[in-house]
Every structure is written in C-alpha cells, then in structure tokens.
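Lab notebook, bench 4. Still working through the backlog of constructs that have no structural model yet. Next entry is a single chain of 135 residues. Request: give me the structure tokens for it.
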Amino acid sequence: MNLLRHTAIMLVTVGLAILSGCAGKEVPSDVMDEAQMASLLQDVYLLEGYYAVETGFQYDTLHPEMIASYDTLLSTYGITREYFEHSMEWYSRHPEIFQRVHDTVLARFDREIAATPTQAQPIANEIKVTPSPFN
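Model written out:
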C-alpha cells in the first residue's frame, strides 16, 4: 500500500511539474507581447490578402511594393524588421503561445465578419436546376 501511495504522489508531482512548465512560459521583454503581435499579424494578414486579390501576389515571390508595404506597416507600429523577425523566431520556438496569438487574430476577424452587414442576396432563385438524365 505504501508503494501505491508513493507512486501516486510521484505521478501527481510529475504531472504538475509538466503543467507548470508549459503554463509558466512568458514572453520575454525583448520580444513583442502577445497583444501587439496579434495586432501586427492581423494587419499583416490583411495586407497580404489585399495583395493576393489586387495584384496576384504569390507567397513565393515578394514584389518590391510588397516589401515596402511591410516596412511601412512595421514603422506604423514603431518597430524594426529585426525586432519583428526576432519576435517571430521566439514565437516559432513556442508554438503553444503562438497558437494563442493566432487564435486571438482569428477571433478578431470572426467578430469583424459578424459585425459587417452582408450585401449578398440569395441566389437560389437564379440557379436553374436541370434534372439529371441518369435518374
């Protein structure tokens, strides 16, 4: 019985150590905090979406105007490219924290989409369905 209790205590201790190791990670002071990173990434995604639609931007090719737009965006946040890259490197090594940032961005987009009235009209009446000759 003593061995069973000792094993249970060890398992609980190890479990708590693992959980506290994951939860205790904080963003260091030389890295963008989660809120700022989420705001910046939201704007980056909007910028990339604009270029994808308007200019046929391909992710494998960065056009000079796209690079200039990134630089302008970073300057509006008052950060350098090096600071952004350093922050992205840190977040890439801490995927559980980066996932929280990404979830924040997605939640913001979802709220914006939900708050935007749609102008789309139902097209069900415009679609002409012809019976299949195979029925």
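Notes after review: Residues 1-23 have pLDDT under 50 and may be disordered. The first helix runs from residue 2 to 23. Flag for follow-up if needed.
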